[in-house]
């Protein structure tokens, strides 16, 4: 009985409740029917095994290596070819379902989080290496091909793909985030090494950014669509093929480690080596905290001071000249404890500290998680920003050893944080914002290679200004007017 109401009002109220229940049931039934229709369409495209609603699978595809919380998609699909990607995208477009591309999940800025739900396109089944042209130094790959898989395939050809972000990331995912890494000072980033892209747009349209099958080493024909999609983080389309530049494997390689009395001395050596025209392949910086962590983790005995790891590629004769020049420069800047390595095994052992930096940082605080910051400044500002950043870490009692691609001004603080401590998480968040704004104040960027993703959208606005953001939003609206492609990434949600 509906207490406090007259019999007439009780009847009207009951009718209202029944009507509401009927409407809710009707809406739920309509939603259920629409969902069944969509899933049926997905299965007709990529088969029963190509569609997953399982919680575990969805959670695996809702998180990358970042500290951003898991936001699983509503469904995961596993297309096997570009035609299936296109057909699935058309279904999503017709039903206004968000689309989130997924490669290997090694991103560091929450780029795969399904913040609005939707459909994750897991591209791992598209793993073919296509159209290798040895004489032209290029190859075309599908999105399921990783960096290591490509180089293993190329091993007997005398060619290799040098862009190395550290993780065994998918090559199309590396293009989507404009990744780079330790070799960028010599070979460039993904932006300089992508020749052509095949992209599926939000409505299922397939385009080729420099024309289907074309692979010129350079072009000045029309707008540079290739570089529009490189670094777009899945917000403009799904990259389903990329044509990449390849390089000849160097005749010889030499590596070295050198310790310095200060950050300034290490950076001065780097600048002078580059000014001398030495075509150095890798020049990496580790601060004293990072070196100490690496010594403990890998049972090494490097001096606990700012340290450079260097690598040279070339012919035997050219390497001798490069090495002599670099050694003279480093000695003039107070460098000491020089260690050289020529054979592959010794070089690998020499580089062990740099390769294990992530795990060495984690070992500083067992049970904690790591988050890598990512800023880039002009080389001349690198000593100042590193010194100020170290002071910030000490003042706020944060654990964040520093490693960086010093040859291009890009460095990372490997923040080790207790994920169960909300105060510490908040402190790390505030630190990363201070670091990014410090880089912007020094004419740098808030992200050198990890991308914007979820965490740096406001910083992007500060970096490029409102008019550039407006242009970016216009491009987004033109290619994806319904905001279906990886919504919530790069650009901030517009006010209603």
What do you see in this structure?
This protein is of the alpha+beta class. The protein contains 18 helices and 19 strands. Strands 12, 13, 14, 15, 16, 17, 18 and 19 form an 8-stranded antiparallel β-sheet that branches. A 5-stranded antiparallel β-sheet has the order 5-6-10-8-9. A 4-stranded mixed β-sheet has the order 1-2-4-3. The radius of gyration is 26 Å and the shape is globular. Mean pLDDT is 91; it is low at 1-5.
Topology:
Layout: H1 7-46, E1 51-52, H2 55-60, E2 75-77, H3 82-94, E3 99-102, E4 119-122, E5 129-133, E6 138-141, H4 147-154, E7 159-160, H5 171-177, H6 184-187, H7 190-193, E8 194-200, E9 206-208, H8 225-229, E10 238-245, E11 247-248, E12 252-259, H9 263-275, E13 280-286, H10 288-298, E14 307-314, H11 316-332, E15 336-341, H12 344-350, H13 352-355, H14 357-363, E16 369-372, E17 375-376, H15 382-395, E18 402-405, E19 410-417, H16 422-441, H17 457-464, H18 466-479
Parallel strand pairs: 2-4, 3-4
Antiparallel strand pairs: 1-2, 5-6, 6-10, 7-11, 8-9, 8-10, 12-14, 12-15, 13-14, 13-18, 16-19, 17-19, 18-19
Helix pairs in contact: 1-3, 9-11, 10-14, 15-16, 17-18
The assigned structural class equals: alpha+beta
Separate helix tally: 18
- Beta-strand proportion: 15-25%
Low-pLDDT sequence parts: 1-5
**Average pLDDT, all residues:** 91
Q: Characterize the biggest β-sheet.
A: 8 strands, antiparallel
Task: Give the fraction of residues assigned to helices.
Answer: 40-55%
Give the overall shape, derived from the CA principal axes.
globular
In total, the number of strands is 19
Rg:
26 Å
Whole-Å distance between the termini? 43 Å
């Amino acid at each position: 009985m509906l207490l406090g109401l007259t019999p007439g009002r009780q009847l009207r109220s009951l009718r209202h409740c029944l009507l509401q229940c009927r409407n809710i049931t009707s809406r739920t039934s309509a939603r259920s029917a629409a969902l069944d229709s969509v899933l049926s369409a997905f299965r007709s495209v990529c088969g029963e095994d190509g569609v997953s609603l399982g919680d575990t699978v969805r959670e695996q595809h809702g998180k990358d290596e970042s500290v951003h919380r898991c936001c699983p998609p509503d469904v995961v699909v596993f297309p096997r070819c570009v035609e299936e990607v296109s057909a699935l995208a058309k279904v999503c477009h017709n039903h206004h379902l968000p689309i989130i591309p997924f490669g290997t999940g090694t991103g560091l800025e929450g780029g795969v989080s399904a913040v609005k739900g939707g459909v994750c396109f897991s591209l791992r089944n598209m793993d073919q290496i296509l159209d290798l042209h040895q004489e032209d130094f290029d190859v075309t790959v599908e999105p399921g091909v990783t960096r290591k898989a490509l180089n293993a395939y190329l091993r007997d050809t005398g060619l290799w793909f040098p862009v190395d972000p550290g993780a065994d990331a998918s090559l199309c995912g590396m293009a989507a985030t404009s990744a780079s890494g330790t070799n960028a000072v010599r070979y460039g980033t993904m932006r300089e090494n992508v020749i052509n892209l095949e992209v599926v747009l939000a409505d299922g349209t397939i385009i080729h950014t420099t024309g289907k099958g074309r692979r010129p080493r350079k072009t000045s024909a029309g707008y540079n669509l290739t570089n529009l999609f490189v670094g777009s983080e899945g917000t403009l389309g799904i990259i389903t093929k990329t044509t990449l530049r390849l390089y000849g494997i160097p005749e010889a390689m030499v590596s070295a480690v050198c310790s310095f009395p200060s950050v300034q001395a290490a950076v001065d050596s780097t600048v002078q080596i580059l000014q001398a025209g030495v075509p150095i392949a890798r020049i990496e910086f580790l601060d004293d905290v990072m070196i100490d962590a690496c010594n403990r983790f890998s049972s090494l005995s490097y001096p606990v001071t700012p340290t450079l790891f260097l690598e040279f590629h070339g012919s035997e004769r050219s390497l001798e000249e490069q090495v002599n020049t670099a050694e003279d420069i480093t000695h003039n800047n107070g460098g000491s404890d020089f260690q050289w390595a020529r054979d592959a095994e010794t070089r690998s052992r020499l580089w062990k500290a740099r390769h294990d930096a992530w795990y060495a940082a984690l070992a500083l605080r067992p049970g904690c998680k790591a988050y890598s910051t990512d800023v880039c400044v002009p080389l001349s500002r690198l000593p100042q920003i590193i010194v100020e950043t170290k002071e910030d870490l000490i003042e706020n009692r944060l654990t964040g050893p520093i490693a960086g691609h010093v040859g291009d001004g890009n460095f990372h603080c490997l923040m080790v944080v207790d994920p169960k401590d909300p105060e510490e998480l908040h402190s790390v968040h505030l630190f990363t914002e201070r670091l990014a704004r410090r880089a912007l104040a020094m004419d740098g960027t808030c992200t050198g290679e990890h991308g914007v993703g979820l965490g740096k959208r406001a910083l992007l606005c500060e970096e490029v200004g409102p008019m550039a953001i407006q242009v970016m939003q216009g491009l987004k609206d033109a290619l994806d007017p319904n905001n279906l492609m990886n919504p919530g990434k790069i650009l901030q949600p517009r006010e209603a």
